[in-house]
Each structure stands twice: as C-alpha cells, then as structure tokens.
Amino acid sequence: MKRIHLFGLMLMGIMGSLFAQPGHHIELTVAGMEDQDVILAHYFGDQQMAVDTVLATSGKAVFSGPGDLPKGIYLMYFPETQAYFECIIDADQHFSLTTDIEDFYANMEVEGSIDNKVFFEQNIYLASMTEQMQALQEKGRQASPEDQEAIKQ
Fold it and tell me: What is the pLDDT of residues 22-39, one digit of tens each?
C-alpha cells in the first residue's frame, strides 16, 4: 500500500513539472499611454536595477524570457513621464496587468497572479486610509484652540 502511495506522489510530481510554464511572461496594458519605453526593474538594496526594457505600442508591452526572474518587488517605470508602479514577481511569473495612465493602482486589473491581486487591493486600501487621515488632520488644524486642546487630551 505504501508503494502505491509513493508511486502516486511521484507521478503527480512528474505531471506537475510537465505542465509548469517555464520562464516569465508578463503582459502589461495601460490605457491612454502613448508609445514609449517601459522598464521592468527590481530593488537591490537601496537601488533599482533594470531587468528588461521594452517598447510599449498602443499601450501594450510584454516582458518575456526563458528564465524565471528572482522573486521580489519590481517596478514598471515609464521614463518619458517618470511615472511608475510596483508589482510582485513570485512563483506566478505568467500574468497580465491592465490599468489606466490616470491612476495605475485604482484601475489595476490582474489576471494570473493572486499575489498581485492582493498587493494592489492593499495599496488601494492604504491610499483610502491616507486620504481619511489627511482629512482628519486638516479638520484638526482648522479646529479652534479649545477644540485642539480637547483633541490632545
């Protein structure tokens, strides 16, 4: 019985490796973006290191290669506008990101990467909390001296 289980596990491992997609393939679509270079870079200590540069035409760019990229936080940098957004490269290296030039994070749609879905949802949540905090801070600055003192207590 143990041999059957061991054989089954080995067979599942072999089948899994046959269907795994090698390398990386990241499709990026940015609505409203003119033709321009897009740089895929990763963080290395306190620096950003370019991994690949592609020309995005009609708002579409594809980063693809035979090898896996090192896991980590990457950024998509648009040198013409000096805009960028971050994404995660992990085990899922075949995915697509679709967004809008007006607000990368708020308009982001992710397919094929659960890590990036969660990452962008978290960024949107943090942005909304920051807006709420800034609104409360402004109310505090506009409050009367008596109210400001009461807030401190």
Answer: 899 999 999 999 999 999
What six digits make up the tokens of 39?
A: 């740089």
| pTM of the complete model | 0.75
The span from the CA of 30 to the CA of 8, in Å, is: 45
The full DSSP string for 66-112 is SSPPPSEEEEEEETTTTEEEEEEESS--EEEEEEETT-TTTT-EEES
Cβ distance 66 to 137 under 8 Å? no
- With a cut of 80, say whether residue 61 has pLDDT above it: yes
Angle (CA) 81 83 88, round 5°:
145
Please report where in the chains the tokens 């709420």 appear, as a residue: 132
Q: Identify any residues that bridge with 62 across adjacent strands, giving them in sequence order.
A: 27
